[in-house]
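Input record, target 12 of the design panel.
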């Protein structure tokens, strides 16, 4: 959390392309700035123009003039807002970029896991090359999806979906939701899937990601995820299993179960998603 739909929504709400960064306020020290040192980081960004803003997996990538990129990863609880005017930092503010249209890009993160870093072209290429394909693209092509999935017969479904080298951008929420829609247990091994099940999982993953983007992501009760100038996503109301342990399955009424997979909670319906 935030995952692909939240990062995509965050990106779409920003109006930064063509803007110049006037000043950088590193309110709190972001660990990944360390190789630069905070002052060099601020100096490198000051006066640069944003030429392109895009998402890759869970990364926000801002391509700047003179071949430098700013990469931001929100990790567990970060949010990137664009506020009108200048803003004073609150206790959770980690970074403020003041733009030439008068707005401010503000990175807030109560838990301090968010990361921001400056990348030269080869570093940006390496970062992107280490990530798997974008699931929205891959899932549009059932043949390519199935081939990529079935190349990992020993892997368990939940862990594989969340592996950023397999596909980039899926985390706990959307892996659980896709598996429920596809009627597949999180601990099933890829090698046990029929062709139909493999295809169904790709369709379910693509559908849940598209629907979550349309609903502008999932803002849970903790309110951690926000976008734009502080809006909430609406997909939480449509979650079928995630964080619904003990509540009835939307398909069959069986109480949703929770198990630990790779030290993270996994939610599933024991009836709709049998382990076999
Ligand atoms: Zn069920």
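The sequence produced for target 12 reads:
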């Amino acid at each position: 959390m935030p995952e692909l739909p939240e990062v995509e929504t965050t990106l779409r709400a920003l109006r930064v392309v063509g803007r110049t960064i006037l000043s950088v306020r590193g309110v709190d020290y972001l660990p990944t700035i360390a190789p630069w040192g905070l002052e060099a980081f601020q100096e490198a960004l000051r006066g640069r123009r944003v030429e392109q803003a895009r998402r890759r997996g869970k990364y926000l990538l801002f391509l700047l003039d003179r071949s430098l990129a700013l990469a931001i990863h929100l990790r567990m609880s970060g949010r990137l807002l664009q506020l009108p005017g200048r803003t004073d930092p609150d206790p959770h503010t980690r970074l403020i970029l003041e733009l030439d249209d008068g707005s401010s890009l503000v990175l807030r993160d109560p838990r301090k896991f968010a990361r921001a870093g400056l990348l030269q072209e080869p570093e940006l290429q390496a970062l992107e090359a280490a990530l798997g394909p974008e699931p929205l693209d891959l899932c549009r092509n059932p043949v390519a999806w199935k081939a990529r999935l079935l190349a990992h017969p020993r892997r368990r479904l939940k862990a594989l979906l969340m592996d950023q080298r397999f596909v980039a951008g899926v985390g706990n929420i959307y892996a659980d939701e896709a598996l429920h829609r596809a009627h597949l247990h999180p601990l099933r091994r890829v090698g046990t899937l029929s062709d139909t099940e493999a295809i169904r999982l790709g369709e379910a993953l693509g559908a849940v990601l598209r629907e979550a983007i349309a609903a502008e992501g999932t803002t849970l009760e903790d309110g951690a995820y926000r976008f734009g100038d502080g809006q909430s996503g609406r997909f939480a109301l449509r979650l079928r299993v995630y964080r619904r342990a003990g509540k009835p399955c939307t398909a069959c009424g069986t109480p949703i179960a929770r198990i630990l997979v790779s030290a993270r909670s996994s939610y599933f319906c024991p009836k709709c998603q049998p382990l076999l």
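Strands lie at 21-25, 50-56, 59-64, 68-73, 79-83, 93-99, 104-108, 115-120, 257-261, 264-268.
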